[in-house]
Structures are given as structure tokens and as C-alpha cells.
Write a structure and sequence with these properties.
heterodimer; A: alpha/beta; 8-stranded mixed sheet; B: 328 residues; alpha+beta; 4-stranded mixed sheet; elongated
Chain lengths: 359, 328
């Protein structure tokens, strides 16, 4: 079904119901292992490998913010680690220390952790999602994690769960009783860049059409222009997509739109070159910032954010737009004001959600 | 397979086929200063270490000792002492002897490694795993399939590039990068690299810059290098090799990073227009990423301090200062 040639299964979770369900849907060779760390790191180079295990550490983490950049206090659930879309700029190859896709089957531990977090007093609405180290719908036809999470969060208070994706195969969640507690959001890009740099993903208009269907099913919707890529026709293409959003989704249903220009740790340059020698994505001028991530020059980033934000706000002036992992001075130049720190951006989300989501 | 022991004898140099390089491990035995030193030594002391040859019936093929034979010939000798093997010796064994003979004293260049590995695998049909287990240790290489593949691939580079890379002792990763370019581009790069003194690091940097430039502009290396700045540096005969190398690197960087170059140019111009007094300096953060400027003032007496103070008051109201501040 998903084309995995080998499925390593941690002996500790062989009897886990999620493991059984996943295995019953796959046809690759099943290899029980006592220690998944001993799977050779180069084994996945020429074949597609899936590893089923249980995560023993922190399954729910704060989204990793970086030095001198404003982050929004978002939280991430790492139930699946890996993706097969094959975006040229994908950081997962550099970050995931495993020879294949990893599924942490112990979803009950995630639920327990979330319950614990939500039982503590919180100042602001808790935002959490599964789309950091995987596309939220990747392998969903065998894991059913997306619907499991939607149903779990549907009864919770003070938390907004986000499914983040580039997929248009998201209809599995449409019929669920989500109770408005889940936001489904799509990563968007300029059409030419989506075609050249996000090879395995559907084009942006198919993504927008999937967003339309989700909004019609009552879901709140989010969009992430991330990574925004600088190329010759960037202004026109991003403007076109920014405007198209509102042809598909009613702005009242859009909770947020984030903007983030391309950024990557320096080591990713060589990985990109090795895997995608013809990609132009790292040909443009990028330099290390305070967090040592490579970014476009600040004046260019400011210009890009201003243009894309202007195109969005021109269509729908009240839309909540935020910058992902950006400097405070860039916020100031783009919007005329900046959150003082991460907590203030968290509060801004809270205020917006109180107004638009809780009401 | 067991091999017959060699026979020690004196062999006439004219009976040795100097054109056959089947088992050579030295890429370019006839150039370089050490041949002259060896010739001097042989003139004084004779050939102390016998060479190893294969008796092919009509002539002899060198297994090891090509430099000694050439040096002996240059020294005016007509014969050399040799261990002679009969022609039942296998290619693989002969290659092993050549490498063992050189093992303690040789550090091979990547070009030599590539040349040796290529012959073993492609010409002599030695299994790749055997090459890694039996020959890599003799070449001081770790047993890595990736290295083997790289060495085999870089053999495809032209002889001209290999000679240049051999003499400059460029490592495999530099050669592998060079191979990422099309044949015509490789030739243009060789022209550029041989025009100046580039070490391995600088060569890698140039290759990376050119790779990104040719990908970004969808242009050949020749087109990328076709600009006044680069041509002027290449044509300036007054420049030393080091100066030319440094300037070419700078020129490549400016082509690769035109926006940064433009920001630097503007910053420099406005800073100059501010007429900053001697002893004061204004700087931006790396790549203009920060949101502050740094101003340093050096003075040695109160008069100097007053001058600086006057400059600060005036500068804070100047348009150039506003422009500098807008840049961050």
C-alpha cells in the first residue's frame, strides 16, 4: 500500500493495537527487533523502511524557537517522524536520526500527556499540532491518527489542535464530530515553486480546494506560506495565491495565516545539493542569522513579507497574520509594531482566538 | 595463487619498456624536483634498491621503480639491478608488489588513488570488496564503499585536470565536486584554477560558488566568467599567483552574492559621505542581520574627544546617517 519494503517492529509493541492495525495494512517484510537503535543508519538509503516503536521521551514538546527570533509558543506532537512528499528544502533528513519513517504507536501516552498539560492552569489557549516532523496526513490511511486526534480533542477545553498538511487527501476527517476544536491548515507556496520544490505534493489549488471542503465541513482553516522562496516572479505568484485563498475559503473561517521565508541550518545545503542537484532553492543569497540558520538578507525578507501581507490584507483586512521564526525588528518593519517577546505573541493568538474561535 | 620467487639480476635499461605503465602507482613520475635529487643520488651512489620487473620475453615491464630507472638513465647508466619475475605473475599480485614496495614511504594523491583503483577494478577485474580489503590498507584508505565509488568516478576527469589536481594534491571531495559539472564547464574551471595558486579549500570554494552560479543563472561556466571584472583579473600579468587567486575568489563571491555586494557598496558610500574623522569607525552587523550599528571612537586627549563629540552631534542629523540606519 505505502510501498515500505521493510517494516521493523520494536518487540515491545508487537501486540499494541495500533501496531496490529498498521501491519495488517502493509505488505512489506516484517522484522521484529529488540533494539531499534541497532538498525543500521545506512539501511534506508536504497529501500523504504518503516519503524514501529514506542516513544519513551517527551511526545509533546514546545515548538523549537530560536535565539533572537519571536516564536508563538506552539506545541508539537511527534507521533510520526518522516514524510515522503520529497520537498527539496525538507529538514527532516537532517533532524530525524533514523533510517526510515518512524511511527510511535503509543498514542495513549500522548493523550495522557495532553490531559496532564490541560489539567494545569493555563493563561492562554493551548495550541498544539502534529505537522512539525511529519505531514499530519502522512500515512493516515494506515495509522488513522488524524481522526483519532480530532476525536480526542473534540471534547477538550482551552485547546486548539492543528492538522498541518500539503495533502489534498484530507477528506477522512470531514465527517467527524470535531466540535470546532481542530483547525486544518495547509502549507502554500507560489505555484511554480510548489511544482519544482514540493514535487510530491498536489498543486496549491488542489490544496485550496481541500481547504474549501474542510471549511464546508465546519473546520476552522489556517494557511502557512512557508517557506516563501525568492525567485524572479515571486511577487506575482505569491500575490496570485494570496488572493486565491479567498476564492476558496470564507475569511471568517480562517484563523491564521503565517509567513516564513526560507530558512535552513547550514548543513542542509549539502544535503539538498546531494539529493536535488538541480534545485535552485539554495542558489539565492542566504546568510547565517543569530540562530545560525541561513536566511535571505533582512531587507529582502521585509520586502517579501510586506508584499505578501499586503496581498492578503487587501482581500481580507482583518485576517490574523504572523511571522514564523522572525526577528522582532523585522516584525516592526513589516507591521509597524512587534510583539515584545514569545509570550506576547502567544497572548495575541489568545486574544484573536477568543474573538474569532471561542465566540 | 603461489608465485615463483623473483630472480635477482642486472638488466639493461634499453630492454625496459618505459611506455608500459600497467602497475605504476605514481601518477606523474617524470616531473617534480625529486627526480633530480634521485638522479644526483644515483650518480654518486648507484641504484641502492633494486627495481622490480616482469620478464616478458622481449622486454621488461616495470612493477615498481620507474623513477629509479629514469633517474639511472638520466645519470648516464645503462643497467639497473632488478628483481625479475616471470610472466606468470598475475596483474593483481604485481599491483600488490608495487603498492607494498611504496607502502612505508608514500602518501598517494587522490588522483593516484583513483588511477590505481580504476585499474584494479576495471582493467584487472578485481572484485570491489577485495579491493577494499586487500588494497585500501596499502593506500592508507579506510574500507569504505563510498570512497571506492568516488575514486572510480573521479577517474572520468580529463588528464589535464588530473595532472593539475595531482600536483596540487587536491583531495577526492574536490575532484568529485569538479565532476558535478559538464565536460565543457570542467575545462573552463581548469583554466581558471590553473591561472592562480588555489589550495584545496579555495578550489572547493570556487567550485561551490560556480555550481550555484551556473544553476541559478542556467548558464555555462564560460558565460559566468565572461565579465569585465573576472577578465581583468585573469589578464593582469602584474598580479602574483596568490593575489590573482584572492581576487578571483572575491570576484566569484560578488557574482554569487550581488545583493550583499550592493548593500556593502551603499553602506561604504554613505559611511564615506559622513566624513567620519580619523580614529572613528562605523560598522554593521554580519550580513546586515542585526538592528544596530557599531561606532567606535579612538582619541588620546580632550581635544580629540571634543572633535568626536562634535562629529556625533552633526552625524546624528545628517541624511547619510539616516540612510545607514535605514539599512538595518
Amino acid at each position: 500500500m505505502e510501498g515500505f519494503e521493510k517494516i521493523y517492529i520494536d518487540k515491545k509493541i508487537e501486540g499494541h493495537p495500533v501496531s496490529k492495525r498498521i501491519i495488517s495494512n502493509l505488505s512489506g517484510e516484517i522484522i521484529p527487533v529488540a533494539d531499534i537503535q541497532k538498525i543500521k543508519s545506512n539501511e534506508g538509503e536504497n529501500e523504504k523502511i518503516l519503524i514501529l516503536t514506542r516513544h519513551e521521551g517527551r511526545l509533546v514538546k514546545r515548538c523549537p524557537g530560536t535565539k533572537n527570533h519571536i516564536c508563538c509558543n506552539y506545541h508539537v506532537i511527534n507521533q510520526v517522524l518522516g514524510c515522503d512528499i520529497g520537498c527539496t528544502y525538507c529538514i527532516l533528513k537532517g533532524y530525524i536520526n533514523a533510517p526510515g519513517t518512524v511511527i510511535n504507536v503509543n498514542i495513549e501516552d500522548t493523550f495522557e500527556k495532553i490531559e496532564k498539560i490541560l489539567s494545569r492552569p493555563r493563561k492562554y489557549i493551548y495550541r498544539v499540532g502534529t505537522g512539525e516532523l511529519a505531514d499530519s496526513f502522512y500515512l493516515d490511511d494506515i495509522t488513522r491518527f488524524a481522526e483519532t486526534f480530532v476525536e480526542f480533542f473534540s471534547t477538550k477545553r482551552g485547546v486548539l489542535f492543528e492538522l498541518k498538511t500539503k495533502s489534498d487527501r484530507t477528506d477522512s476527517v470531514l465527517g467527524l464530530n470535531h466540535n470546532g476544536k481542530t483547525i486544518v491548515s495547509w502549507s502554500l507556496n507560489a505555484p511554480s515553486q510548489a511544482a519544482s520544490e514540493e514535487g510530491g505534493a498536489p498543486d496549491v489549488f488542489r490544496r485550496l480546494d481541500a481547504a474549501r471542503r474542510a471549511s464546508e465541513a465546519g473546520y476552522f482553516i489556517g494557511f502557512h506560506f512557508d517557506p516563501i522562496i525568492y525567485f524572479d516572479n515571486w511577487e506575482e505568484e505569491y500575490r496570485q495565491v494570496a488572493r486565491a485563498i479567498f476564492d476558496y475559503v470564507d475569511p471568517k473561517k480562517i484563523l491564521w495565516i503565517s509567513l516564513g521565508t526560507l530558512r535552513y541550518p547550514p548543513f542542509l545545503h549539502n544535503i539538498i545539493r546531494e539529493r536535488h542537484p538541480k534545485s535552485k532553492i539554495v542558489c539565492r543569497e542566504s546568510f547565517p542569522g543569530d540562530d545560525n540558520k541561513m536566511r535571505y538578507l533582512k531587507p529582502l525578507r521585509v520586502k517579501i513579507y510586506r508584499e505578501v501581507a499586503r496581498a492578503i490584507l487587501g482581500e481580507s483586512p482583518g485576517i490574523f497574520i504572523y511571522l514564523c521564526m522572525e526577528r522582532k525588528d523585522v516584525w516592526g518593519k513589516v507591521f509597524g509594531a512587534a510583539p515584545e517577546n514569545n509570550a506576547q505573541l502567544d497572548r495575541m493568538f489568545h486574544e484573536m482566538l477568543k474573538e474569532k474561535w471561542l465566540r | 595463487m603461489a608465485h615463483r620467487a623473483p630472480v635477482f639480476r642486472t638488466v639493461k635499461i634499453k630492454k625496459i619498456d618505459l611506455g608500459a605503465k600497467d602497475y605504476d602507482v605514481t601518477f606523474d613520475a617524470v616531473s617534480g624536483g625529486d627526480l633530480e635529487i634521485l638522479t644526483d643520488s644515483i650518480e654518486r651512489l648507484g641504484v641502492l634498491n633494486p627495481v622490480r620487473l616482469i620478464d616478458n620475453g622481449d622486454f621488461y615491464i616495470i612493477i615498481s621503480g620507474r623513477k629509479r630507472v629514469i633517474a639511472a638513465k638520466n645519470a648516464g647508466m645503462s643497467e639497473v639491478p632488478a628483481f625479475v619475475y616471470d610472466d606468470t605473475i598475475t596483474n593483481r599480485y604485481a599491483m600488490t608488489l608495487g603498492l607494498v614496495d611504496n607502502f612505508p614511504k608514500r602518501e598517494y594523491t587522490a588522483v593516484e588513488e583513483s588511477w590505481i583503483i580504476h585499474r584494479l577494478v576495471r582493467d584487472f577485474g578485481v572484485d570491489e570488496d577485495d579491493v577494499m580489503s586487500d588494497f585500501f590498507p596499502l593506500l592508507h584508505l579506510p574500507p569504505s564503499k563510498k570512497i571506492l565509488k568516488e575514486l572510480l568516478s573521479v577517474f572520468k576527469l580529463s588528464d589535464k585536470i588530473k595532472v593539475l589536481a595531482h600536483h596540487r594534491r587536491y583531495p577526492t571531495k574536490v575532484l568529485a565536486r569538479w565532476l558535478d559539472f559538464a565536460a565543457d564547464d570542467r575545462k573552463q574551471i581548469a583554466k581558471l584554477i590553473s591561472s592562480a595558486h588555489f589550495g584545496s579549500g579555495a578550489t572547493m570554494e570556487i567550485l561551490n560558488l560556480l555550481f550555484e552560479l551556473t544553476t541559478r543563472d542556467e548558464a555555462s561556466v564560460e558565460v559566468i566568467l565572461e565579465n569585465d571584472r573576472t577578465k581583468a583579473i585573469m589578464d593582469d600579468e602584474k598580479l602574483s599567483q596568490n593575489e590573482r587567486g584572492e581576487r578571483l575568489r572575491e570576484a566569484m563571491k560578488k557574482l554569487r552574492y550581488p545583493m550583499l555586494e550592493e548593500l556593502e557598496r551603499k553602506f561604504k558610500k554613505w559611511a564615506e559621505d559622513l566624513k567620519i574623522p580619523k580614529g572613528a569607525k562605523i560598522r554593521h552587523t554580519p550580513y546586515f542581520e542585526g538592528d544596530t550599528l557599531e561606532l567606535s571612537l579612538n582619541f588620546k586627549d580632550t581635544k580629540g574627544l571634543k572633535e568626536m563629540g562634535k562629529f556625533l552631534v552633526e552625524a546624528s542629523e545628517r541624511e547619510e546617517m539616516s540612510k545607514l540606519l535605514e539599512m538595518i
